[in-house]
């Protein structure tokens, strides 16, 4: 063979027939960003238009103009001026008739004079001349420096009862000059305002007035502190009252006398106070609550019972009988007449507020300062 036989595997036609490859469609291109932006803008405008139309529909008036009706002229009509009213007829007053003058009443007849008997007045006896005054007798005049008061307006005596306002006004108005002075013997003087601590020996019950007794707790020295003037163990005697006011919670004791162990005694006249210097002694208060209000409760129950018993069986009206409980009301004790009772136990620590200077110069001290 002159020519070489072609290999069928290299023949393009045969190779093309045998080369069967899958056909794959190319993917579509994604939309660009500009197209997406334009779409979003259109959607936003459409949404705005829909919402605006909805808002206009809500705010539109309820009554809509009917179709086919021509729009009315909005110009204002001309003003109407009413014609002037006709003049009213004049009213002529009717003349009043002239009143007839009333004739004057005739004058009353003059009273006739009457003869009246008047007894003659008795003769006044002549005044007896008084005893002659001796103007030449000497007069004794005593001048004590007091201001002369007018005889026409005598000065009323001062009242012994003074209230708190009167005392305050007297203190404020007292502007006299005060002069300083020294104690005659400071070593033997317990000055005013000293607090003496004591312990009650006796109990206190304000149901009845009575006496109280106490013992001094510690030594009390003179003003300069050099001498013991009131030794520990000195005894005090006082008195308390049974008159207790409503709401009172502190017992009032007036210490009248102090007796030292060596027999020296002195008048105090000073009130009791607590350990802080407050006036009075703190006490246990029995207000008698049930005794005060049991009478009122009993009286109310009796009034209700009498009213219920006095009404009719078929009538809801309650009729009160006047004077039906006069005897019961007189026997019931009034609440304001029951006063509270104050009680203080023995052994209570109290104080004595010295109300005036105590001078022990005549008695002498009980000991010297160590």
Describe the structure.
With 370 residues, this protein is of the alpha+beta class. Among the domains are: 186-284 and 344-368, Lipocalin; 289-311 and 320-337, no CATH class. The protein has 5 helices and 16 strands. A hairpin with a 5-residue loop joins strand 9 and strand 10 (265-273). 10% of the residues are buried. Residues 134-161 have low confidence and may be disordered. It is found in: Membrane. This is Type IV secretion system protein VirB10. Belongs to the TrbI/VirB10 family. Its main location: membrane. It is a single-pass membrane protein.
- The CATH homologous superfamily of the domain at 186-284 and 344-368: Type IV secretion system, VirB10/TraB/TrbI
Q: How much is the radius of gyration in Å?
A: 62 Å
Largest sheet: 6 strands, antiparallel, barrel
Strand content: 15-25%
Tally of DSSP β-strands: 16
Defining key terms:
single chain, 370 residues, alpha+beta, Lipocalin, 6-stranded antiparallel barrel, 3-stranded antiparallel beta sheet, 18% strand, transmembrane, transmembrane helix, membrane, T4SS_VirB10/TraB/TrbI
Helix and strand layout, with pairings?
Layout: H1 12-18, H2 33-59, H3 164-173, E1 189-190, E2 195-200, E3 204-205, E4 210-216, E5 220-221, E6 227-230, E7 235-240, E8 250-251, E9 253-259, E10 265-273, E11 281-282, E12 284-286, H4 289-310, H5 326-331, E13 341-344, E14 349-353, E15 358-359, E16 367-368
């Amino acid at each position: 063979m002159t020519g070489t036989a072609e290999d069928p595997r290299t023949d393009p036609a045969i190779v093309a027939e045998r080369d069967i490859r899958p056909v794959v469609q190319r993917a579509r291109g994604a939309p660009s960003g500009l197209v997406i932006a334009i779409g979003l803008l259109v959607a936003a405008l459409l949404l705005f238009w829909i919402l605006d139309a909805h808002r206009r529909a809500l705010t539109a008036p309820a009554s809509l103009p009917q179709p086919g009706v021509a729009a009315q002229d909005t110009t204002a009509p001309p003003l109407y001026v009413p014609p002037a009213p006709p003049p009213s007829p004049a009213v002529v007053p009717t003349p009043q008739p002239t009143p007839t003058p009333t004739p004057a009443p005739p004058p009353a007849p003059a009273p006739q004079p009457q003869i009246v008997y008047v007894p003659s007045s008795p003769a006044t006896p002549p005044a007896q001349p008084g005893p002659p005054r001796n103007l030449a007798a000497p007069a004794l005049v005593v001048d004590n420096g007091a201001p002369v008061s007018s005889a026409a307006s005598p000065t009323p005596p001062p009242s012994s009862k003074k209230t708190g306002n009167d005392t305050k006004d007297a203190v404020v108005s007292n502007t006299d000059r005060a002069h300083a002075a020294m104690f005659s013997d400071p070593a033997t003087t317990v000055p005013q305002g000293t607090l003496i601590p004591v312990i009650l020996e006796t109990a206190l019950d304000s149901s009845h007035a009575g006496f109280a007794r106490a013992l001094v707790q510690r030594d009390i020295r003179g003003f300069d502190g050099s001498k013991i003037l009131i030794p520990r163990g000195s005894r005090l005697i006082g008195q308390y009252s049974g008159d207790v006011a409503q709401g009172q919670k502190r017992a009032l004791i007036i210490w009248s006398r102090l007796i030292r162990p060596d027999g020296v005694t002195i008048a105090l006249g000073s009130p009791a106070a607590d350990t802080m210097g407050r006036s009075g002694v703190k006490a246990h208060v029995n207000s008698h609550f049930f005794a005060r209000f049991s009478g009122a409760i009993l009286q109310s129950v009796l009034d209700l019972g009498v009213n219920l018993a006095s009404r009719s069986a078929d009538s809801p009206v309650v009729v009160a009988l006047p004077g039906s409980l006069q005897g019961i009301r007189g026997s019931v004790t009034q609440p304001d007449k029951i006063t509270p009772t104050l009680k203080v136990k023995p052994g209570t620590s109290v104080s004595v507020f010295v109300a005036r200077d105590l001078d022990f110069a005549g008695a002498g001290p009980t000991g010297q300062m160590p």
